[in-house]
């Protein structure tokens, strides 16, 4: 509310009246029928982000936004104030996995928090995983991380451009090096290690998709796999699939139990429609 009032007070209202908003044509060829009633979806053509007509419409909208923002006298004052407010060191609480403690540090204006590692709380911490080195503009991010039960490995997800599609990599915590395998086509998935530390469960789709955050197609037939550490993705074991319900997503976790000296596992699987 404060920013809105500030814009109007500084003369932004004059810019609003100058706007030439692009006209979106109506296409009556798309008709859906719900409960016996026909409904025209006249703007469905805009749902294809890669169509030339959609790109032109988006660019015209961006021209309005750029003109509004760049001509405003308050823009840099607000940016300077927000930068000052955000520019302070930030720390997370440490958590212990295996022999090491881990916590995040952000020096102030870094795009991403840096994960640090230390053997003892009094030791000098060292950077263990720094997502800021993955891209110059900060568009590649750490989406999740999960340590093995013994803490010797960390599986982590990488997301590009805000996309839900992930790549999973595995890091050896002692060497700080990533293993050779990379798991792709992962989406709406957790990482659930088994108690023997040999691998983990994850969910993926068979189809390839772009990872620019602009995909609009509904993904179908998610499958649950088990990955052995050190093996390639094409060797992963298919655990569960539900082809009769293509829109289901698989929610799961590994539950370990033992009746002897050998641990056994069962999957607690929950299913939900999209």
Structure description:
With 274 residues, the chain is α+β, with helices and mostly antiparallel strands. The chain folds into 3 domains: 2-85, no CATH class; 88-133, no CATH class; 136-272, Prolyl oligopeptidase, N-terminal domain (Methylamine Dehydrogenase, Chain H, 7 Propeller), CATH 2.130.10.120. 18% of the residues lie in helices and 37% in strands. The chain has helices at 2-18, 52-70, 75-86; strands spanning 31-34, 37-40, 90-91, 95-97, 100-106, 114-118, 126-129, 140-147, 153-160, 165-172, 178-187, 192-193, 199-204, 223-228, 237-241, 249-258, 263-272. The strands form 5 sheets. Strands 3, 4, 5, 6 and 7 form a 5-stranded antiparallel sheet that branches. Strands 8-9-10-11 form a 4-stranded antiparallel sheet, with no helix packed on it. A 4-stranded antiparallel sheet has the order 12-13-14-15, with no helix packed on it. A hairpin with an 8-residue loop joins β14 and β15 (237-241). The radius of gyration is 24 Å and the shape is flat. The protein starts with a helix and ends with a strand.
Sum this structure up briefly.
The protein is of the alpha+beta class. It folds into three domains: 2-85, no CATH class; 88-133, no CATH class; 136-272, Methylamine Dehydrogenase, Chain H (7 Propeller).
From the alpha carbons, calculate the radius of gyration and give it in angstroms: 24 Å
Largest sheet: 5 strands, antiparallel
Task: State which percent range the strand residues make up.
Answer: 35-45%
What CATH first level of the largest domain would be assigned? Mainly Beta
> What is the residue-mean pLDDT, rounded to a whole number?
87
Low-confidence stretches: 1-5, 257-262
What is the strand tally? 17
Going by CATH, the architecture of the largest domain would be 7 Propeller
């Amino acid at each position: 509310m404060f920013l809105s009032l500030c814009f109007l007070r500084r003369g932004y209202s004059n810019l609003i009246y100058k706007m030439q908003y692009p006209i979106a044509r109506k296409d009556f060829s798309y008709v859906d029928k719900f409960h016996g009633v026909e409904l025209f979806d006249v703007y469905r053509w805009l749902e294809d982000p890669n169509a030339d007509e959609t790109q032109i419409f988006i660019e015209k909208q961006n021209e309005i936004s750029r003109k509004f923002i760049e001509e405003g006298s308050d823009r840099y004052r607000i940016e300077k104030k927000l930068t000052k407010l955000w520019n302070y060191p930030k720390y997370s609480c440490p958590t212990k996995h295996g022999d090491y403690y881990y916590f995040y540090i952000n020096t102030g204006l870094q795009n991403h928090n840096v994960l640090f590692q230390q053997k003892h709380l009094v030791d000098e911490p060292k950077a263990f995983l720094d997502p800021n080195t993955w891209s110059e503009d900060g568009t590649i991010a750490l989406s999740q991380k999960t340590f093995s039960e013994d803490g010797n490995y960390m599986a982590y997800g990488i997301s590009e451009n805000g996309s839900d599609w992930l790549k999973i990599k595995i890091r050896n915590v002692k060497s700080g090096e990533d293993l050779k395998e990379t798991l792709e086509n992962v989406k709406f998935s957790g990482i659930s290690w088994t108690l023997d530390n040999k691998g983990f469960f994850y969910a993926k789709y068979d189809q390839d998709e772009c990872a620019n955050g602009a995909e609009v197609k509904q993904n179908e037939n998610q499958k649950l796999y088990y990955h052995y550490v050190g093996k390639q993705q094409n060797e992963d074991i298919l655990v569960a699939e539900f082809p009769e319900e293509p829109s289901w997503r698989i929610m799961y976790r590994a539950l370990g139990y033992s009746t002897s000296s050998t641990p056994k596992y069962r999957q607690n699987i929950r299913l939900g429609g999209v």
